Amino acid sequence: MNMNTHHFTCLLIALMVSLSAFGQDGYQVGDKASDFKLKNVDGTYVSMADHEDAEGFLVIFSCNTCPYVVAYEDRMIALHNQFAPKGYPVIAINPNDDKASPGDSFEKMKERAKNKDFPFAYVYDETQETTKKYGATNTPQVYLLEKEGEDYVVKYIGAIDNNYQDASSVTKKYVEDAMDAVLTGDDVPEKKTKAVGCTIKWRKS
Hints:
- This protein is of the alpha+beta class.
- Helices cover 31% and strands 20% of the residues.
- It has a single domain (27-199), classed as 3-Layer(aba) Sandwich (Glutaredoxin), CATH 3.40.30.10.
- It has helices spanning 3-21, 67-83, 106-116, 129-134, 174-184, and strands at 32-33, 38-40, 45-46, 56-61, 90-94, 121-124, 138-139, 141-148, 151-158, 198-199.
- The longest helix has 19 residues, at 3-21.
């Protein structure tokens, strides 16, 4: 092995270790997701266990500043309004470090939630521990969880649909299709898709 090859191999290993440290090896479809207790924009703390009547959740890693999220906010509201009455509310989690992205601070979250009149919980993962457990990498990124006994089982991971720019041009509604399958007891047609969006802004150690 020459020096250049050795150097490249070391860099590759370092990159893989770095990615792993930032939650890239999080939950997969079929895994049991752990609960969380995170601060909501209304000052209360939200966990999945608080929702005793819920059949599951649409956990969406979101933020204030990403243009992809902004493009999807109305669709996120629509998903909550459509599926919360069926037992699957949206919980939006902001994973971004506010030092790396000041526009994603808790105060800015409160402003955004008020301006958009979010009907769902919008919580802040200040420590980023929940984000790392889930393995989220982008905003927006959806985890569809179905409650099975006391467990929350991952049924779908990925994008909301296949056109962030224009809702009227969407040809594949990944989350809606996954929800429809779960509600009817069928197999989810596409269990994982690429979450197109902004990379999460991680805290510097």
